[in-house]
Amino acid sequence: MLETMTDAPAIGTGPTIYVCTTCRPPGEPDSAVRPGAILASATVAAAAGTEVDVRPMRCLGNCSRGASAALRANGSWTYLFGGLDASCAEALIEGARLLAGAADGILPWRGRPERLKRGMIARIPPLGFEEIDE
What is the reported pTM? Predict the structure, then answer.
């Protein structure tokens, strides 16, 4: 059964990581355990005892570059990463914490885990963002 917006649990004030559970290598047949699900489980375990909320979900629409995860914090840009595996779980937690602490809402390059310095698919502005032409 799909969740509706009214059924979804409220997002906390800490950072959130959405991890695609359906990601699998392109051209690979369906399998009982997908790499995205393995990444989601590892990320949930890595977040234990932190303020980071990990939300496994079906399909982030980045199928050709999975496994995928998106980082978001209140008022920040959202970052979508691909080409991940279970070894990236700690980097995702660290990145989410950095993003939540960024005063400008932009994931800083300095201090960013090496795994998050590559593999970025997109950076999406926060709601209400307006570009200022200079």
Answer: 0.84
